[in-house]
Design a protein that fits this description.
This protein has about 250 residues and is α+β, with helices and mostly antiparallel strands. It has two domains: about 120 residues, no CATH class; about 110 residues, TATA-Binding Protein (2-Layer Sandwich). Helices cover about 50% and strands about 15% of the residues. It contains six helices and nine strands; from the N terminus they run H-E-E-H-E-E-E-E-E-H-E-H-H-E-H. The chain has a five-stranded antiparallel beta sheet. A two-stranded antiparallel sheet has the order 1-7. Helix 4 packs across helix 6. It is rod-shaped. The two termini are about 20 Å apart.
Length: about 250
Amino acid sequence: MPPPDLKSAAIGLLALILVPFIATLFGFVLGGFKIGYLKKNLVIKLRESSLPSFLATLRNRLAEIGFEEEPGTAQFFQGQNYDPETPTHATKKKVLDLQIGAPEAGDVTVNISFRYLDFILGDTGESAYRNGVLNFVSGKTDTMVIVPNNSFAAFVVLLDGIFACLAYAFLTEARRTELWFGITIYCVASIGLGLQAWQSIRQRPKELMGKWQAIIGIVLCLTVGLATIVPLIVIEVFKFLKRLGIL
């Protein structure tokens, strides 16, 4: 077996960059090709006499789910400060605008507008969370729904495992075993990411999905990693023992 080629390490690191990009494209397709700020307006018509109680309930419910009102405005922001205990979709920056029309014949129109401040590339539940917020704060529902989200890291690790298997099979068939070292580095990094994703899913099982994606990816990367590194270790040990005159 030829000695490890250090250029293979660069190839492995490059693959670590490309696979998340591929996963993002998959997410874009699976998310229904929804991109942008996912803005949505909700118009509610009320009796003018019920407006104060409606606004009080709206503000209380917005505060309950982590929205903060900008002083002097009718804007409420969420996701400005990251908190690991916050639900997944609530960590993304967004704003809710509140506009109240002029009274007409005892009625008043309330316009609630929701949009993300971060550009969404591939809907992973952002639209469902947006609809849940609007329904909850407007009084259409009495509880805020929990919107599960597939762990992006878990999906990346699954793709890492598949890519590692394909790369190992291709290089072995092509007898380019000197490039195995790059796969080893790739697998070690992917296993670390997989363990982190698995831990996050365990901590938030109602919000994050993808446990088996992470586990399968870890197993595939561990298998390929051992298959590439063990022969190299054996060869180096054999050379060392031979230099000592033991063999």
